[in-house]
Amino acid sequence: MPVWLRDCRWRQSASAVYLSLPVPGVRVTPSNIFCTDQYLKVSVPPFLFEVFLYAPIDDINSTAKIGNGLIFFTLYKKEEAMWDSLSLASDNKEKLQCLRQDAVLKAHEKAKAETEAKKVTKQKHKRYALEATMKLEEAERKRIEELKEKERQKVTKELELWKKQQKDAEKQNRVQQELLPQEVEQLKEKKKEKMNKTRISNEGTSKTRLQPTKGCHGSSSMFSENLKEEQLPAPRSAATIKINFTSRVFPTPLRESRVAEEEEWLHKQAEARRTVSADMAELEDLKEEERNPDWLKDKGNKMFAMGNYLAAVNAYTLAMRLNNKLPLLYLNRAACHLKLRNFHKAIEDSSKALELLTPPVPDNESARVKAYVRRGTAFCQLELYTEGLQDYEAALRIDPENKTIQTDAEKIRHVIQGSMQDS
Amino acid sequence: SGAAGLERPQLVLHTQQALNYTLFDCKWVPRSARLLCLGSAARGTGVLQLYELRGARLALLREIEKPKPIKCGTFGATSLQQRYLATGDFGGNLNIWNLEAPEIPVYSVKGHKEIINSIDGVGGLGIGEGAPEIVTGSRDGTVKVWDPRQKDTPVANMEPIQGESKRDCWTVAFGNAYNQEERVVCAGYDNGDIKLFDLKTMSLRWETSIKNGVCSVEFDRKDIGMNKLVATSLEGKFHVFDMRIQHPTKGFASVSEKVQKSTIWQVRHLPQNRDIFMTSGGAGSLHLWKYEYPAQRSKKDSEGAEMGVAGSVSHLQNVTLSTQPICSFDWSPDKKGLCVCGAFDQTVRVLIVTKLNKV
């Protein structure tokens, strides 16, 4: 329960009411004071003071002075009149409650109105600031434009001046050139005269005097051009310099090379060489050379050439057990299977070879062509002509100039069309 | 950055002209305000157009049509009075034209089996000494040097060894022509090779490879002892080589810079200041650069042999003019800062670079 403060003292003048309220022992801040135009409340827990004013006051201009355990209110009356008492006399609690609520509402609305007003002024200020900055930037831009324009004009003027000079110089040149032949003759005569004179004078004087070519020094710059022409060296004696160009592992410039893919291919090949099968138990029976996949591959190739296809297959298979990453083994074994009419196995091996021949680079082009052709052949032998044609066309994409592949692809197309007509 | 940015050189577009043919090369006519555009018309013939800069526009003075599209041209080997133009065309023909009477060439030779990609001339225009010579580089992998006084056969031929696969030569440049005997030719190929041929000793003096195809090479001056060489390539890189000191194994020191992902089509040094150069790019942009020399241009390696030290390159300014590559660029030899560039959007543009004195 709050403690009501009742011992307030007040006095009034025509225009104001002076109210002093002692608030013993507690600190009062402005937030503890609530005032509207007809209601005044001070709430400092545990103390409470309220008064319903006799007449409305100007709550915006009224002041409250807080200090020394006392609040001193100066309330300016709205109407200048002497009040009979400080507060309204009323016992009706409901009425009092109503008045209280009204007061609170009023305060709220006032607060709202204030915030609205603040917002509006803030916007106005913002807009003003924006316009001001825009004006400044505009001015700056204009200044720069003007400077640029001035430069341009200055430069244009200089250009015109220079052009005029050029024209004048050209005119002079032309005039001088017209005079040239005459002048040349005149000067030549003068030269001769001078030479004669000096010779005569020298004969009469000491022998040690040098004989400068005075005539030449006196000539104008135009003649030096003519003299220069006579002094030009003869055309160079023809010769050839042979050159060669920077070599690379793959001879293409940076923009053409697919460096990343080529590196990958090289890397793969290097790794494949290093792979050694872990299946060493059975391999202990093998002789030294039979452990070398390359030797086995060569053996297989020889068998193939001799027509001993089964032996070739065995050789390749053994090689694969040692190193299953060499695409050429699969490629060659596929060829053997084709000869042995094991078409399914030929397809398997060609596919495995193609798998290992990635990434596609110029280096493994011929191997890929072979793989596609072998697989295509196997498909066709199994009467899977569409798949076969696909492989032939893939081969053609890599090697478009190959006549054999072209004719074979044509044949397959005919077969497909023929069978379509039949069915 | 407003004020500080305006102190750097600005690349101001002065005027431009839309053309109705593909432009491959544009060159200023020396001692004049005229410029030449070379290219290929839609019907497969060659076009030469002569424009004059009048105020803020280009006025067409002459248009000449030739049977084969023209790829490149140079005034480098002609005298100032004659101002003959040497061109290389798509058929591998080298022709020298008198623009006053262009019906019949002054000199003509079918120099190469395939298109002449690049041409350079030295010994003319009152610059340097020695015989006037023209060098052409072609897709057939050969680089040939011609003397206009000798018909039909080149005075030097740099060709691949028999049986060797050939690579396109994309660019050639003369250098080191500081007296009557000395001369070098630098050639860049599409596989990234750069080769330096010494014409006095008729030998290969140096070669290197920069991995990406070399689009353009140029010495900072043709008529002095070799000082710097800039080589530009695909994928936005260019290399500046210090050509003063050649190490027996490491060659020349270099510094490289990457601009953007796009090809750098051309490099051209400012005639009035050999440390400033412009690169033109595949994204339609021009970049202006300045080379700064290092404190010491040479140092000794571990065995006591001298080797060069490369400096650094600083970027001065850039501008994007087009969405298509700018394939050719030329500084005016007479007016500092005036330049022309041609792009594959069939437009030739004249630009002025300001504040080059303050760089």
UniProtKB/TrEMBL annotation, chain A:
<dbReference type="InterPro" id="IPR052004">
    <property type="entry name" value="Dynein_assembly_factor_4"/>
</dbReference>
<dbReference type="InterPro" id="IPR011990">
    <property type="entry name" value="TPR-like_helical_dom_sf"/>
</dbReference>
<dbReference type="GO" id="GO:0007507">
    <property type="term" value="P:heart development"/>
</dbReference>
<dbReference type="GO" id="GO:0007399">
    <property type="term" value="P:nervous system development"/>
</dbReference>
<keyword id="KW-0677">Repeat</keyword>
<feature type="repeat" description="TPR">
    <location>
        <begin position="369"/>
        <end position="402"/>
    </location>
</feature>
<dbReference type="Pfam" id="PF04969">
    <property type="entry name" value="CS"/>
</dbReference>
<keyword id="KW-0802">TPR repeat</keyword>
<feature type="region of interest" description="Disordered">
    <location>
        <begin position="188"/>
        <end position="221"/>
    </location>
</feature>
<dbReference type="InterPro" id="IPR007052">
    <property type="entry name" value="CS_dom"/>
</dbReference>
<dbReference type="GO" id="GO:0007368">
    <property type="term" value="P:determination of left/right symmetry"/>
</dbReference>
<dbReference type="GO" id="GO:0003351">
    <property type="term" value="P:epithelial cilium movement involved in extracellular fluid movement"/>
</dbReference>
<dbReference type="GO" id="GO:0120293">
    <property type="term" value="C:dynein axonemal particle"/>
</dbReference>
<dbReference type="Pfam" id="PF13181">
    <property type="entry name" value="TPR_8"/>
</dbReference>
<keyword id="KW-0966">Cell projection</keyword>
<dbReference type="GO" id="GO:0005634">
    <property type="term" value="C:nucleus"/>
</dbReference>
<dbReference type="InterPro" id="IPR037894">
    <property type="entry name" value="CS_DYX1C1"/>
</dbReference>
<dbReference type="InterPro" id="IPR019734">
    <property type="entry name" value="TPR_rpt"/>
</dbReference>
<feature type="coiled-coil region">
    <location>
        <begin position="122"/>
        <end position="172"/>
    </location>
</feature>
<dbReference type="GO" id="GO:0036158">
    <property type="term" value="P:outer dynein arm assembly"/>
</dbReference>
<dbReference type="GO" id="GO:0036159">
    <property type="term" value="P:inner dynein arm assembly"/>
</dbReference>
<feature type="compositionally biased region" description="Polar residues">
    <location>
        <begin position="198"/>
        <end position="211"/>
    </location>
</feature>
Automatic annotation (TrEMBL), chain B:
<dbReference type="InterPro" id="IPR001680">
    <property type="entry name" value="WD40_rpt"/>
</dbReference>
<feature type="repeat" description="WD">
    <location>
        <begin position="134"/>
        <end position="147"/>
    </location>
</feature>
<protein>
    <recommendedName>
        <fullName>Dynein axonemal assembly factor 10</fullName>
    </recommendedName>
</protein>
<dbReference type="GO" id="GO:0006915">
    <property type="term" value="P:apoptotic process"/>
</dbReference>
<dbReference type="InterPro" id="IPR036322">
    <property type="entry name" value="WD40_repeat_dom_sf"/>
</dbReference>
<keyword id="KW-0677">Repeat</keyword>
<keyword id="KW-0963">Cytoplasm</keyword>
<dbReference type="Pfam" id="PF00400">
    <property type="entry name" value="WD40"/>
</dbReference>
<dbReference type="InterPro" id="IPR015943">
    <property type="entry name" value="WD40/YVTN_repeat-like_dom_sf"/>
</dbReference>
<dbReference type="GO" id="GO:0120293">
    <property type="term" value="C:dynein axonemal particle"/>
</dbReference>
<keyword id="KW-0053">Apoptosis</keyword>
<keyword id="KW-0853">WD repeat</keyword>
<comment type="function">
    <text>Key assembly factor specifically required for the stability of axonemal dynein heavy chains in cytoplasm.</text>
</comment>
